[in-house]
Amino acid sequence: DAGVIQSPRHEVTEMGQEVTLRCKPISGHDYLFWYRQTMMRGLELLIYFNNNVPIDDSGMPEDRFSAKMPNASFSTLKIQPSEPRDSAVYFCASSFFLQGAQGYGYTFGSGTRLTVV
Amino acid sequence: GENVEQHPSTLSVQEGDSAVIKCTYSDSASNYFPWYKQELGKRPQLIIDIRSNVGEKKDQRIAVTLNKTAKHFSLHITETQPEDSAVYFCAARRTSYDKVIFGPGTSLSVIP
Q: Residue A100 and residue A81: Cα distance in Å, rounded?
């Protein structure tokens, strides 16, 4: 398995532009998570999906951020319009729910380093 | 909601010494506690986890302990090596289908 695949690895964009980050979870995983990592705020959960349905988007900072999961193998995180304070590393992670199990670990993608200038 | 605190924020040890990172959590319903290691410029990777029905777990040089009453858990690394240098995150989760909440991280430096 290739693991969780994110694209692009790096993105530099000008303030006000639309940015779309992409994620392909591990096949068979039914949970997908989007995290943002900065030095100041650490790893923040933005939103997560179960079976393609958004479960908790309370971490999405504002209306400029949106996420979709049209099918089990693809998700996008969109920022429109982008601002310099959105500069961060965005990680996608996936996992599966095992009936009766108390826990499981995430598998993270390699991340997208976003720089908004 | 759950809140996870982690100490220290930075830790330097001499190669061969032990390192201990401590975390506390707020939600008594949390029952799963993973630890992640993130090397510079790389993704966080799960290194060990512990469930609430277990007090201690070991994997070679790494061990985790859990005190449910006090709501704290710790990571112990023995015989540290330079390749152990990384940021370590503790985390907590309530159920199999709930989100994982991460601590702020500990930057560990192992000095050769």
A: 43
When CB atoms are compared, the residue of B46, B101, B103 closest to A105 is B46
- Substitution target in B100, B102, B106, B107 with the highest count of A β-carbons within 10 Å is B100
With cut-offs at 50, 70 and 90, classify the pLDDT of residue B52: confident
Contacting residues of B for A92, CB less than 8 Å apart? none
In chain B, whose CA is at the least distance from the CA of A30? B97
Listed as ranges, residues in chain A with pLDDT below 70 are 1, 98-105
Q: Outline where A1-117 has alpha helix (H).
A: none
d(C-alpha A103, C-alpha B51), whole Å: 7
Measured CA to CA in angstroms, residue B33 lies from A102, A109, B82 at distances of 10, 20, 25
Mutate to test the interface with A, among B3, B4, B43 (most CBs of A within 10 A): B43
For residue range A13-44, what is the model confidence (pLDDT) as tens digits?
A: 999 999 999 999 999 888 999 999 998 888 99
